[in-house]
UniProtKB/TrEMBL annotation:
Keywords: Cell membrane, Membrane, Protein transport, Translocation, Transmembrane, Transmembrane helix, Transport. It is a single-pass membrane protein. Belongs to the YajC family. It is found in: Cell membrane. Part of the SecDF-YidC-YajC translocase complex. The SecDF-YidC-YajC translocase forms a supercomplex with SecYEG, called the holo-translocon (HTL). GO terms for cellular component: plasma membrane. InterPro entries: Preprotein_translocase_YajC. It comes from the Bacteria. This is Sec translocon accessory complex subunit YajC. GO terms for biological process: protein transport. The chain crosses the membrane at residues 6-36.
Amino acid sequence: MFATPAFAQAAGGGAVGAFGSFLPLILIFAIMYFLLIRPQQKKAKEHKAMVDALRRGDQVITQGGLIGKVSKVKDDGEVEVEIAENVKVRVVRQTIAQVLNRTEPAEKA
């Protein structure tokens, strides 16, 4: 018969083979971090800074689409926004989407 003996092949390269198999996974995580996670953290930090810098007189847009002027900034996470003459609504600070016109503080003499 033409039967040939089968020889066992050597296993992968040991520690080098294990690292080589995890390398694509590590690269995918690094790419995801730089393309998705890091920009989202930067955007959240900018939004928090914008919300913390709100002051009376700023013209803002809420996430609901209301445009108004900040009439009072409260300490408990709320802002009072005047959306029409003598019409004021309480808005949660984090729902402010954009500041249109920023007022400058009066100069002290």
